[in-house]
Amino acid sequence: MAAPEATHAPAPAQSDPVLDGYRRSIDNIDAALIHILAERFRITQAVGRYKAETKMPPADPAREAKQIARLRQLAVEADLDPEFSEKFLRFVIDEVIRHHRRAQDG
């Protein structure tokens, strides 16, 4: 019978204070993004309820196009890839519309 192979867990990486500082900043930004998204969705859910009550359609393609153009321009000004910003916003908008449709369905 063969002896079981020894498994070696990777040695813990030595702490790098510069990298740790960057990572703490990234963690703080990620937390802020989550809180901002949560607040945005609280507001858009209220919009969805209002649209359902007033029989407005869940999607507003003209507003969506305007917002995408506005945020693409902001991305350019912020030195962020406008394609990325549009994909991100489209993902958020699609989720909002899904919530609005759900509000209309009761």
UniProtKB/TrEMBL annotation:
Which molecular function GO terms apply here? chorismate mutase activity
| Keyword Isomerase tagged | yes
| Matching Pfam families | CM_2
| Alphabetized InterPro entries for the sequence | Chorismate_II_sf, Chorismate_mutase-related, CM_bact, CM_dom_sf, CM_II_prokaryot
Q: Which UniProt keywords apply?
A: Isomerase
Record-level GO BP terms: chorismate metabolic process; salicylic acid biosynthetic process
| E.C. designation(s) | 5.4.99.5
Question: Which superkingdom?
Answer: Bacteria
Residue ranges occupied by any Chorismate mutase domain in the UniProt entry: 13-104
Output the PANTHER family linked to this UniProt entry. Answer: CHORISMATE MUTASE (PTHR38041:SF1)
Please report the name of this protein according to its UniProt entry.
Answer: chorismate mutase
What is the species of this protein?
Aurantiacibacter spongiae
